[in-house]
């Protein structure tokens, strides 16, 4: 396993291996868990790259006061030392039924990949940048995501598995997004990550008998990191208002739909895990969407109406189509024909989601919010 440094001293933050465009994969054969994390599918977390020179040109001067206060919070590093096991950590992997064990492992590996994806992106932006404000921010954000990924990898040791993070840096496929798409997508990813983790934490806080793994006790402080990351990205967009006007409003709508739809379908693929926590995936998803949309009022001028009955109907149809595509993959020639038909229908349903009425939103004078959920 390639371990991440603890980054107790974040002045010297560096990834343990080169960035996305460099080098070949190590000769050592990756294990099965690493190969799973390497996969790129519609629902799996991706690694991203962008035009770092263009990203570096963004100014934060219009939001200087809020920015400096936020950077001070990053520097204070309230979660220093949080991502370590303590006396509350008590877990026997043999207590999990096989189906729950497999789904939970899938959740951990997917979460690790998503966290490490952010680490790689932010570290590369810091490494290539000249904009002092942004380099400072990306250093802190990469530090946080490295801790999250390293902590999950440490948790995987209980199951006697791990993900070779160094291998992923070099071997996983990278998706190119323009800087504005990076901002829309990562903002939503950080904020929906907060909403997901705080919803699970609050539910298990009220129902401790459903807390089948100790990692859930770490979620409150963890998701506050995600919330703060989203605050930073919101300030970057508010400081560059052309990112929020004109045709960009359509892209903002698209990314909301894409992120919500992906989460809805992915969470329904883990029924045993949600049942063990006492959560209904659909109701959980709608609550997370509501929290995320409320938070998005700080920066997005247009919001998807997540309370619309039609929105839920179309998400349910996407879920059935996804299940149909998965079942058809093993059906030979006829299965491939059926898959194409279902994929075409999926595109149509996504189009219908994008055409649903949205809610206009007048942006507040100040951007920052508190993680009050």
Sheet with most strands = 2 strands, parallel
Identify the strand order in the major beta sheet.
1-2
The secondary-structure class comes to: mainly alpha
Helix content: 55-70%
Q: If you compute it from the alpha carbons, what radius of gyration comes out, rounded to the nearest whole angstrom? A: 20 Å
Mean pLDDT: 89
Poorly predicted ranges (pLDDT <50, ≥5 residues)? 1-13, 15-27
How would you sum up this structure in a few lines?
By secondary structure, the chain is mainly alpha-helical. The chain has 13 helices and four strands.
Highlighted features:
two-stranded parallel ribbon; 4 strands; 373 residues; 13 helices; mainly alpha; disordered N terminus; two-stranded antiparallel sheet; single chain
What does this structure look like?
The chain has a domain at 10-88 and 97-246 and 274-302. It is globular, with a radius of gyration of 20 Å. Helix 5 (132-156) runs antiparallel to helix 8. It has helices spanning 32-38, 52-56, 64-76, 98-128, 132-156, 165-171, 179-206, 219-239, 248-267, 271-277, 281-296, 309-328, 332-355, and strands at residues 47-49, 174-176, 302-304, 358-360. Residues 1-13 and 15-27 have low confidence and may be disordered. The strands form two sheets. It has a two-stranded parallel sheet with strand order 1-2. Strands 3-4 form a two-stranded antiparallel sheet. It is mainly α.
């Amino acid at each position: 396993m390639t371990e991440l440094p603890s980054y107790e001293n974040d002045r010297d933050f560096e990834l343990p291996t080169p960035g996305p465009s460099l080098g070949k994969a190590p000769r050592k054969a990756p294990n099965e868990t690493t190969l799973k994390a390497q996969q790129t599918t519609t629902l799996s977390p991706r690694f991203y790259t962008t035009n770092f020179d263009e990203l570096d040109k963004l100014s934060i001067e219009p939001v200087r006061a809020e920015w400096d206060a936020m950077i001070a919070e990053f520097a204070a590093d309230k979660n220093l030392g949080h991502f370590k096991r303590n006396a509350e950590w008590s877990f026997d992997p043999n207590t999990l039924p096989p189906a729950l064990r497999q789904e939970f492992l899938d959740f951990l590996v997917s979460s690790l990949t998503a966290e490490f994806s952010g680490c790689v992106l932010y570290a590369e932006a810091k490494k290539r940048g000249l904009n002092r404000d942004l380099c400072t921010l990306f250093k802190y954000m990469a530090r946080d995501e490295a801790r999250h990924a390293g902590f999950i990898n440490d948790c995987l040791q209980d199951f006697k598995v791990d993900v070779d993070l160094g291998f992923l840096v070099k071997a996983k496929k990278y998706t190119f997004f323009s800087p504005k798409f990076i901002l829309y997508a990562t903002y939503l990813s950080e904020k929906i990550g907060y909403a997901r983790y705080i919803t699970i934490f609050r539910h298990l806080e009220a129902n401790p008998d459903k807390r089948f793994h100790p990692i859930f006790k770490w979620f409150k402080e963890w998701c506050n990191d995600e919330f703060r990351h989203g605050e930073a990205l919101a300030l970057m967009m508010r400081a560059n208002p052309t990112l929020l006007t004109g045709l960009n409003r359509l892209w903002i709508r698209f990314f909301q739909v894409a992120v919500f739809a992906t989460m809805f379908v992915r969470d329904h693929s883990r029924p045993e895990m949600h049942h063990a926590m006492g959560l209904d995936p659909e109701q959980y998803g709608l609550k997370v969407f509501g929290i995320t949309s409320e938070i998005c009022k700080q920066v997005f001028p247009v919001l998807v109406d997540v309370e619309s009955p039609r929105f839920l109907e179309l998400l349910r149809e996407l879920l059935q189509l996804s299940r149909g595509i998965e079942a058809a993959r093993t059906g030979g020639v006829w299965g491939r024909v059926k898959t194409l038909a279902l994929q075409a229908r999926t595109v149509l349903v996504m189009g219908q989601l994008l055409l649903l009425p949205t809610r206009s939103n007048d942006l507040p004078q100040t951007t920052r919010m508190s993680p009050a959920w």
